[in-house]
Amino acid sequence: MGRALCQQLSAAGVHVALCDVSAAAMAETQALCRAQAPAGTRVTTCVADVSQEAQVLAFRDAVINEHQTPHIHLLFNNAGIGGGGGFVSGDRADWERTFNIDWFGVYYGARAFLPLLVAGPGGCIVNVSSVNGFWASLGPGVAHTAYSAAKFAVKGFTEALITDLRTHAPHVRCAVVMPGHIGTSIALNTYDVMKLTAAQLAVTRARMLKAGAPVADLPDEAIRQLLLQRSHAAARLGAHPRRHRGDGRRVRQLDVDPDHQPAAERRAGPAPDRRPPGRPRWADRNPPDDVPGAQL
Ligand SMILES: NC(=O)c1ccc[n+]([C@@H]2O[C@H](COP(=O)([O-])OP(=O)(O)OC[C@H]3O[C@@H](n4cnc5c(N)ncnc54)[C@H](O)[C@@H]3O)[C@@H](O)[C@H]2O)c1
Fold first, then answer.
1. Which of 92-96, 217-221, 237-241, 271-275 has the lowest mean pLDDT?
2. Is 147 part of the annotated catalytic residue set?
3. Whole-prediction pTM value?
4. What is the pLDDT of residues 166-202, one digit of tens each?
5. CATH superfamily of 66-180
6. Residues in contact with ligand 1 (CB, 6 Å cut-off)
7. Each residue of 125-176: pLDDT tens digit?
8. Fewer CB within 10 Å of terminal CB in the chain, N or C?
9. Ligand 1 centroid to 6 CA: how many Å?
């Protein structure tokens, strides 16, 4: 998503400074941007881990130097990873890695760059949360705590910042983005699947079994290959089956169905109805959107 954003901005002649932990990914993004951008558009890169404040501050200093500017107009806090699902029995380091990137990345980014936005004639901070900032769930039986906690924090912080900015720096605005499930490389970028530990593979295997996949007897290597294939397929096609409607148009509404049942439960027959009396089903509350052209 960050790459697409950089491409669109630079194609419109906006100078862009990007940071990432992956120098190789940034070099690709930079080349794609330069191929489309009008002459004179600057696209600079900086290796920085957004969960480390010192690195974010170094990135800010690089922006000031390389772009020779005392201010910026736009700040996108977009970097993020998945993972860190289990709080009860998951690995603590894994949990904190996800929370630190997804929450502290946004926080340190806003801390570092706010003075440069305030110093300018007007600007906007755009923080990327998630549909999991509305619903802290990936479905029944799947722990999803670190990511959800971080994405709720990003949403709450940004909403509160609206008032703070209106009061103390009204020429700067902020917005929060709540994407549904998008077919990006996030699964691949979260873990290098070839380096997953035995414990992480065991959690993955348990999750696949719960979803009805016959992976009980597969060797670890086969699980790695399955993960790799799934991640590549998701990045190519879109991670969610309902990302496109039958007619090929993108869905407009939030693409999460809290009534969703894993395949194993579906095969076992209809799930017991646990909704409070009178509460309509998700599908009834979200009729298909048939407004021509009104797509995101
Ligand atoms: N893909 C989805 O379905 C989805 C849904 C909701 C929200 N989001 C959010 O959208 C944002 C973008 O995700 P994406 O799907 O494009 O993922 P992506 O993996 O394709 O891109 C994320 C980028 O962040 C970089 N990154 C990871 N850790 C970093 C760190 N510590 N410091 C700096 N850069 C780091 C990665 O190298 C990668 O280039 C994330 O905040 C993600 O949580 C994604």
1. 237-241
2. yes
3. 0.77
4. 999 999 999 999 999 888 888 778 877 778 888 888 8
5. NAD(P)-binding Rossmann-like Domain (3.40.50.720)
6. 1-2, 20-22, 25, 49-51, 78-81, 101, 128, 130-131, 179, 181-182, 184-186, 189, 239
7. 999 999 999 999 988 888 999 999 999 999 999 999 999 999 999 999 999 9
8. C
9. 14
The domain limits of the chain are 1-47, 66-180, 187-241
Ligand 1 atom nearest residue 128's Cα? 41
How many residues does this entry show for the chain? 296
Tokens representing residue 264 in the block: 């194993």
In the block, tokens 């954003």 appear at 5
